[in-house]
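Hey, can you fold this one?
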Amino acid sequence: MQPFTNEAINIDLLPKYQEIPLTKPHHSYWKVIAINILIFLFFLAAILVTLIITIPEVRAKLYLISSSYVLLAILLFYLYRKSFKKRGFALRERDVIFKSGIIAETTTIVPLNRIQHVALNEGIFSRMFKLGTLQIYTAGGLSGHLMIAGIEIEKAKQMKELLLKKLEQLEPIPTV
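Sure. Predicted structure:
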């Protein structure tokens, strides 16, 4: 049995995950996002029109409601487009990296030995553009799950198979 040690780690010698080149979502995934935003805006407009027609007090604020609606639409498209450009992922020998966010940028690194299950989902609009979402479920609960959307379906299938093979071959990392 080895004696217990607890040496300090030189942080400057650690690998820099920020330097890992990330794969961006497929450019067609922006179309899927835009379609989803348009559907939301359509239903919101239907609700607003119904309220404007049926309630005279709401009709009096037509200018405010319509300008707020246009502002919301512009803001949604702007924020989702910025977010789309910031997303990226990388599959490495021992982990998966996923980066997203514009206001609060989040980088999640999931070690392969924490992955419990891998699923591949295709939404109706994603299927139209031959895209999929790779879902990676971890032992860490809901906060550790990854959903990597906008991957070409064939590439996503290959990634899923590769992850499953790596999980089968993975030697358990000893715990201290």
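Residues 29-54 form the longest helix (26 residues). Let me know if you want another pass with a different chain boundary.
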